[in-house]
Structure formats: C-alpha cells, structure tokens
C-alpha cells in the first residue's frame, strides 16, 4: 500500500497557519502521521500546494512529494487519484495527532472485506479524511473506527492535543 498524506490546505479556520508543522508532544503533526503509517506502507507521498510547499519541502527528502493546486481537499484528492494509478492508496490528512497504527491496520483489514472502491473511516458517524482507495470507480463505503486521534482543525483542537500530551507526561512521571 502507498500512503498519500494530504498537506496542502489553507487552514482558513486557523488564520492560514501551516497546520502540519504545528508542534504536539515535541514533534510536528506531519511526523505523527508519517510515523503512524511506517509499518504498513511501502511508500509515503506528501501532497503539497503553494500554501504549504515552502514550509514542508524539506520533508521531500523523507517521502515522495507531489504538488496540488490547493483548491481544497476533495479537488486535490481527485487530482491525486488521477495522477497516482497504483492501488490501494491510504489517504490521510497531515493534521492528525495521536493517529493509531493499529486502527489504521484494522481499517485496512476491514476494507479488504467489503465491496467498494473507496473505504472511508468515520468516528461517531463523521468522516475523518482517512480513506483507502482500492479501485478506480466511485463506490463508497464507510467504516466506523474508534476516535483515538485528534483532527487539528481549530485552535481549540490544537490545545486539546497539547493538553493530552501534558496529561500523558504527568501520568508517565507519576508511574515512575
């Protein structure tokens, strides 16, 4: 499987900040996402746009990079699906904290058992921007998975992610 990490957004709800480089637990969000897929993909592709390329281009030494217009997640994803012919693709946003490799593996396993060209992960019924593209058509299937991650789409969610990190550090120190 190939992972496509979508990192070309404008972050308009956060005033245009480049979300993939925001720090959570001592590392940028993009590294949290890249590490979560390390054990399950043979290649990582980073999708950048003119909004993010200057801040993220040094990651192109660690993963393949592709530039998108930055027209929006669905539009950029559509272009990527036309550009990369290999299947299956694991597509996920670069702004997820605490992404769990085991949940991704579970999603991949379930995706193999269902009919549909695109299998999308939902949490509490909400799409998470995480999909496995198995085919070339447009039939969609949703699979519910636990919500262990935090999708950083606002300053409030960023603070929540950082607070969780601080709480984990406190519990770790207390356990020693």
Strand and helix map with partners:
Blueprint: E1 2-6, E2 23-24, E3 27-28, H1 29-37, E4 43-48, H2 53-56, E5 64-67, H3 73-83, E6 89-93, E7 96-97, H4 101-113, E8 118-123, E9 126-133, E10 140-144, E11 150-151, H5 155-175
Parallel strand pairs: 1-4, 1-6, 4-5, 8-10
Antiparallel strand pairs: 2-3, 6-9, 7-11, 8-9
Quick structural summary:
With 176 residues, this protein is an alpha/beta fold. The chain has 5 helices and 11 strands, in the order βββαβαβαββαββββα.
Polypeptide structure, described:
- Helix content is 33%, strand content 27%.
- The strands form 3 sheets. It has a 7-stranded mixed β-sheet with strand order 5-4-1-6-9-8-10, sandwiched between helices. A two-stranded antiparallel sheet has the order 2-3. Strands 7-11 form a two-stranded antiparallel ribbon.
- A hairpin with a 2-residue loop joins β8 and β9.
- It has 176 residues and is α/β, with parallel strands linked by helices.
- The longest helix is centred in the last third of the chain and has 21 residues.
- It has a single domain, classed as Spore Coat Polysaccharide Biosynthesis Protein SpsA, Chain A (Alpha-Beta Complex), CATH 3.90.550.
- The termini are far apart.
């Amino acid at each position: 499987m190939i992972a496509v990490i979508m990192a070309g957004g404008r972050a308009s709800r956060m005033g245009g900040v480049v979300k993939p480089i925001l720090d959570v637990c001592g590392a940028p969000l993009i590294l949290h996402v890249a590490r979560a897929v390390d054990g399950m993909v043979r290649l990582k592709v980073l999708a950048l746009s003119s909004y993010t390329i200057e801040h993220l281009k040094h990651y192109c030494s660690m993963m393949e990079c592709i530039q998108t217009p930055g027209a929006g997640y669905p539009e950029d994803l559509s272009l990527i699906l036309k550009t990369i012919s290999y299947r299956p693709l694991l597509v996920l946003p670069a702004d997820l904290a605490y992404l769990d490799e085991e949940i991704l593996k579970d999603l991949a396993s379930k995706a193999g058992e269902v009919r549909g060209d695109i299998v999308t992960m939902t949490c509490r019924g909400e799409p998470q921007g995480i999909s496995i593209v198995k085919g070339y058509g447009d039939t969609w299937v949703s699979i519910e998975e636990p919500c262990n991650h935090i999708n950083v789409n606002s300053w409030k969610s960023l603070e929540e992610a950082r607070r969780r990190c601080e709480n984990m550090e406190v519990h770790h120190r207390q356990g020693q």
